[in-house]
Amino acid sequence: MKKHLFKLCIILSCLLFSCKNEKKEPYNSYKELNKRYTKFLKYEPDSLAFPRSYDSKKEKIKKVPSKDWTSGFYPGNLWQIYELTNNADYRELAIKWTSFIEKEKFNDKTHDMGFKIFSSFGQGLKQDQNNQKYKDIILKSAQTLSSRFNETIGSIRSWDFNKKNWAFPVIIDNMMNLELLFEATRISKDSSFHKIAVKHANTTLKNHFREDNSCVHVVDYNPQNGAIRSKITHQGYNDASAWVRGQSWAIYGFTMAYRYTKDEKYLKQAKATVAFFLNHKNLPEDGIPYWDFDAPNIPNEPRDVSAGAIVASALIELYEYTKDETYIDYSKKFLKNVQTSNYILSSDIKAPFILKHSTGNWPKKDEIDEPIVYGDYYFLETLLRLKALQ
Ligand code: GLY
């Protein structure tokens, strides 16, 4: 009896030890990621409901129509998984989901055209470079987006809501939509899109950055004379704080603008905002930022993996221009740290997402510390960019 009890104790301690160890160990990324990718294969296409995020308390997927700013990321994820795995089943799904977004090319009520069209049709065009239909859709979308440009201000209008308080709001996120315009010029040789993108980038450079090279979220302009009415936040902690995803959009946006223009002032700004980000006292050791650098209860604040992923991807590109190892080191560290059980969604969860711990809109208490589709998009892009570099 004593002998059996002793044996049982040994078995139990071994089990406990291995569970504890399993938690600490990095995931075998290939195996674990593949388990996550297969959830995408099992998810039924629906032209009216794009998976946007996962509510882990309600165990429910939040779904949105194609007009939502995030709709392009889900097809974009499928395109990128196809590129990573070479499995044509992902390509089939990517083509289908991408087609559901086409009508957005006429939607002039939003600046999010780049996010929607370029993350879906843009990714598709990368895989199939002679796809005339995709090129035409990108061009039409660029024309529609250009209709929101105001020459007096030198910017594309971001939002149409909250007209009571804002006359012409421009958000830092809008830098991301310029890729669509730059590409539209490359495809069509019509330089008007490129010119609008450059004017928008210059106005953002002039008005969105602070002394410490962090950026504000929203600059509201007077559309009649171009004067600044206010500098505020919408998704950050307060008007003076550094909302982390805003910093990420700035870093990615100015690195990308440098790609198309080779204008040194864009490179300078990207590097300066990276320095702000990487040297910030509130950036945790593992490199995954809290949702706002000035959030009041750090370290007891939710992280925003999506912001880390955007920066990790941008820094691979910035490394290519500068050969500064600091940049690539961050991207590698990010990839290593998110590919652990702390960040990869458990394979028990069927929802088609990969990473946990992104934060969408803290002031609205919406999508806090959850898997969100754009976190996965920039994570996959980082994997692909690193693969291409190596
Ligand atoms: N509007 C894009 C974002 O929430 O980051």
Quick recap of the structure?
With 390 residues, this protein is mainly α. The chain has helices spanning 2-24, 29-41, 73-85, 88-99, 113-127, 132-146, 178-188, 192-207, 244-261, 264-278, 305-322, 325-338, 373-389; strands at residues 50-55, 60-64, 149-150, 155-156, 169-171, 218-221, 228-232. It is built from 13 helices and seven strands.
What does this structure look like?
The chain has 390 residues and is mainly α. The chain has one domain (2-18, 27-389): Glycosyltransferase (Alpha/alpha barrel). It has 13 helices and seven strands. The protein has helices at 2-24, 29-41, 73-85, 88-99, 113-127, 132-146, 178-188, 192-207, 244-261, 264-278, 305-322, 325-338, 373-389; strands at residues 50-55, 60-64, 149-150, 155-156, 169-171, 218-221, 228-232. The strands form three sheets. A three-stranded antiparallel β-sheet has the order 5-6-7, with no helix packed on it. A two-stranded antiparallel ribbon has the order 1-2. A two-stranded antiparallel sheet has the order 3-4. β6 and β7 form a beta hairpin. α3 (73-85) packs parallel to α13 (373-389) and α5 (113-127) crosses α7. Residues 8-25 have low confidence and may be disordered. Bound molecules: glycine. Glycine is lined by residues 69, 173, 235, 245.
